[in-house]
Amino acid sequence: MNSDYKAGSISLWDAVAMGTGVMIGAGILALTGQIAELAGPTFPLVFIVGAIVTAFSAYTYIRMSNAYPSAGGIGMILQKAYGPTAVAAAAALLMALSMVINESLVARTFANYLLRGLGIAPDGLLVPAIGVALIIAAYVVNISGNRSVGWISQLLAVLKVGGITLFGISALWAGGFTFGTTGDGTASQGLSGFVGATALAILAFKGFTTITNSGAEIVDPHRNIGRAIIISLAVCVVVYLLVAFAVGSSLPLGKIVEAKDYALAEAAAPSLGETGFYLTVALALIATASGVIASIFAVSRMLAMLTEMKLIPHSHFGMSGGVRDHTLIYTVVIASLLTILFDVSRIASMGAFFYLVMDMVIHWGVYRNLRAELSAHGWIMLTAIGLDAIVLAVFASLKWQSDPMIVVVAFAIMACVLIFEHWFLQRTKTEPHQHDHNGH
């Protein structure tokens, strides 16, 4: 396994680019319309609340990652907090699944924007087909090595952050800097809708964990992991707010909700004209493509780390190469299946459920067992747990009313993951040293 990881192969700015790549790809492009649908005209403010909740959460990850930088850092945090237990393994697997779900979410968003730019209705089989093609292309980039991922992520990050920021400023300028959507009679769900929308905003910021999961490969990781996370979150807060206000000033709420899977493109047309529309589509394609590349890079390393820790099973399935090569393929296959089976809204809901549960498990484990060792502030971790719990409860309640099946599916998968990990770890205890992770 050690040959799969290269210390110092990811610079500070590579890490920032990967973090912003995942966040901006999912956050402002895939989720703006869904957040507006739940929160109503005040939806831009949801990103501020989401950033505050994420800041409390990020504290635990930064303290742990700076102290114990690791490739596959979420698995490391959970194992140190809980030991090699079913809880640690299940929570780590939920994190991996939420990251794979993010890839599916962003891949379908890429397809929606591409088809909208071509003047084709984004429905039918074309959306999953294009999404899967993007995932396969991202796989090709990833197998070319860390430096390719790093410089491509940096290039795309500069293009998309600069371009999307320019879009936001231009749209606001064209709209006369009117900060706020028109109500147009579209019903909002009040405070519960606002809090529920915060679950999706948190999902839009969770890409900072991409940096945690590449910890051992980052230059001077004890300093740069925390710095990369803080810089990435700060950049995304500014970009999200700018674009959310720009969309709100360009379109009435009903139009935002109607075009929720490609809201930026729809907002560009009235304020920036045809040229602005096509430039916005191009920016969306750059942002989503880089998001998929960065997410696949991180989740494959996390799965490899969990394999190394003997927390999940592994099989070659007759393939050549090392464990990381195989987990890369597993990631691509699962992401492709999710892209085919679920629409953007359901993918986002499942990702929010998985991430919030895993996040609470991490904070509780570190609070109980590691805060003294880290000289960390326990009240920050407890606040993070409380905020996550409130958001999760409200979001689950809203989804139970509108789409109970996705709530059942999400919590059934979580239960199955915990049961499976308990069985797997019990089996490995009773069958020690029969084979290693490569099946030898």
Q: What keyword list fits this structure?
A:
disordered C terminus, mainly alpha, 440 residues, Amino acid/polyamine transporter I, single chain, 17 helices
Structure description:
The chain is built from 17 helices and no strands. With 440 residues, it is mainly alpha-helical. The chain has a single domain (2-430), classed as Amino acid/polyamine transporter I. The chain is globular and about 65 Å long. The two termini are 14 Å apart. The model is unreliable at 432-440 (pLDDT under 50).
Concise overview:
It contains 17 helices and no strands. The protein is mainly alpha-helical.
Task: Give a topology summary.
Layout: H1 12-30, H2 32-39, H3 43-67, H4 73-82, H5 86-117, H6 126-142, H7 146-174, H8 190-205, H9 209-212, H10 221-250, H11 253-258, H12 263-308, H13 323-341, H14 344-369, H15 371-374, H16 378-402, H17 404-430
Overall shape: globular
CATH topology, what is it called?
A: Amino acid/polyamine transporter I
> How helix-rich are the residues, as a percent range?
over 70%
Low-confidence stretches: 432-440
Number of domains: 1
Mean pLDDT: 81
CATH architecture: Up-down Bundle
Distance between the termini: 14 Å
Q: Sheet bearing the most strands, described?
A: none
CATH superfamily: Amino acid/polyamine transporter I
**Text of the CATH class:** Mainly Alpha
State the helix count: 17
Number of strands: 0
- Kindly provide the radius of gyration, computed on alpha-carbon positions and rounded to a whole number of angstroms: 21 Å
* Strand content bin: under 5%
Order of helices and strands: HHHHHHHHHHHHHHHHH
Structural class: mainly alpha
